[in-house]
User: What shape does this take?
Amino acid sequence: MPALDIVLVPALSDNYVYLLHDAASGATAVVDPGEAAPVEAALAERGWTLTHILNTHHHADHIDGNEALKTKYGAILVGPKAETARIPDMDVTLSEGDTYDFAGHAAQVFETPGHTTGHISIYFADSDALFPGDTLFSLGCGRMFEGTPAQFWDSLSKLRGLPDSTRIYCGHEYTASNAKFALSIDGDNGALQARAAEIETLRAAGKPTIPSLLGQEKAINPFLRADDPAIAAAVGKSGADPVEVFAAVRKGKDTF
Ligand code: ZN
Ligand code: FE
Assistant: This one.
């Protein structure tokens, strides 16, 4: 089965919404539509009809387009079982270990709490594509609104176990500010310096920095490296448990 066509659609001020299109069947899904209008425009431009809506978590900037899109296209709404009470009108709910069949493409579900308690991440192995919502960003991770450091570190550890070739289609364009923070604690990392320069060039040209590549993120995203002695030392936590190191990195970013 050929890989999904994936289209990045900018929405709101810094959100990314994604269209996933299966050319053989014409099925088209949207991930985390924070608003409907840009999604409708992107569909119309390509002559695609929406069949599915996939949600990673309940925040308004990821679900506010659900209702209008569901009404207009009759799309099936799929989202995290643990957020049933907070996402209206879901048709299908997903939990850890589930595989959802989207037009013959297997969507593997990981529960990744931390940003919200019921957050899921959706992975298509056949397309080398991960949709982590606000759990994992390029060079960063989401704010810890609802979960604990132990939960969040466990969530990121799960995602880190995916193949290096995995492309990460996250929920926001936060990469430039994440790069500044990453450099503040890991400034001698040559790979990070190179990616920061690339990010600057992309943003200056008005281009997205997404998708990023998991293999690269593992080496330069401090939130994926809480078990790396270099990061522990950088936040004054040498020898500490990775959960404690993660908490310190997260706190550092919150106040950066
Ligand atoms: Zn969010
Ligand atoms: Fe968000």
Notes: The domain at 5-168 is CATH 3.60.15.10 (Metallo-beta-lactamase; Chain A). The first helix runs from residue 37 to 46. Residues 59, 61-62, 134, 171-172 surround fe (iii) ion (ligand 2) (CB under 6 Å). DSSP finds nine helices and 14 strands in the chain.
